């Protein structure tokens, strides 16, 4: 496509003042043919805008292609733009433009969620409202949030995004293209607890130990969490929170928390 003359406005302005084609050409340093064509164009159209349809016509993002993509999405919204571009024999870039610019759509990553019964939904709603009401009373500022985490001691690996740059396959192999994974890699279990203005020292669970209610109460809560909480909060009230792991919801653990913490969130709440 031939670019529009950057002097179009000045040429028309001098023409309106009554300057000749030769004078305008000398003043602006442009060819007489350009000046003449610009003036003729202005006399025909009456304005300085580009003509309708200026430029190379679209060959991919045509109404027919946009309609075809729209139909595909309506039939099934769970579609890959890369796969659609391959199926329709158009470039991935053109497909993205059709989806984003023509259809005004965005590709969102699908997420997983648990299937909840109506009773579970109502129960969660009650819990959420109770927790929200607690934030209005600043309960979240005196709550100890706790959890365990199992860390695997092995190289990080993501099959989609892990790449090795090399000039050939042999060099890629030498640079660690293959990452070996063990069936049962070495791991370590760590317990942690934090609050608004402090954190309990991490508790490393002994190797090979499964956290049951007895170990959880005697070796984690009694030895580490309770002494830290008493030292950190002093005589102030605080709330202990834990998740729904079996060792946490067991009767022994629930009763111990009720007897030793000023307040805690029981399993039913």
UniProtKB/TrEMBL annotation:
This is Tc1-like transposase DDE domain-containing protein. One of its GO terms (cellular component) is nucleus. Pfam families: HTH_23 (PF13384). InterPro entries: Homeodomain-like_sf, RNaseH_sf, WH-like_DNA-bd_sf. The gene is Cnig_chr_II.g7989. Signal peptide: none annotated. It comes from the Eukaryota. It is found in: Nucleus. It comes from Caenorhabditis nigoni. Its main location: nucleus. GO terms for molecular function: nucleic acid binding. Gene3D superfamilies: Ribonuclease H-like superfamily/Ribonuclease H (3.30.420.10), Winged helix-like DNA-binding domain superfamily/Winged helix DNA-binding domain (1.10.10.10).
């Amino acid at each position: 496509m031939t670019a529009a003359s950057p002097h179009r406005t000045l040429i028309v302005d001098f023409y309106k003042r009554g300057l000749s084609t030769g004078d305008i050409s000398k003043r602006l340093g442009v060819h007489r043919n350009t000046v003449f064509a610009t003036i003729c164009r202005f006399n025909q159209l009456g304005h300085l805008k580009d003509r309708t349809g200026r430029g190379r016509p679209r060959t991919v993002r045509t109404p027919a292609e946009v309609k075809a993509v729209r139909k595909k999405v309506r039939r099934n919204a769970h579609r890959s733009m890369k796969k659609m571009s391959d199926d329709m024999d158009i470039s991935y870039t053109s497909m993205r433009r059709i989806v984003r610019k023509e259809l005004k759509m965005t590709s969102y990553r699908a997420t997983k969620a648990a299937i909840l019964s109506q009773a579970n939904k109502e129960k969660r709603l009650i819990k959420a409202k109770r927790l929200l009401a607690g934030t209005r009373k600043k309960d979240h500022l005196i709550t100890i949030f706790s959890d365990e985490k199992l860390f695997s001691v092995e190289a990080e690996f993501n099959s989609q995004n892990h790449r090795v740059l090399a000039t050939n396959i042999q060099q890629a192999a030498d640079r660690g293209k293959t990452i070996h994974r063990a069936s049962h890699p070495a791991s370590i279990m760590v317990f942690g607890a934090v609050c608004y203005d402090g954190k309990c020292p991490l508790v490393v669970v002994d190797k090979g130990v499964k956290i049951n209610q007895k170990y959880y109460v005697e070796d984690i809560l009694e030895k580490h969490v309770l002494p830290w909480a008493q030292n950190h909060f002093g005589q102030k009230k605080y709330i202990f929170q834990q998740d729904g792991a079996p060792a946490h919801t067991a009767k022994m653990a629930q009763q111990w928390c009720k007897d030793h913490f000023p307040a805690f969130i029981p399993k039913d709440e």
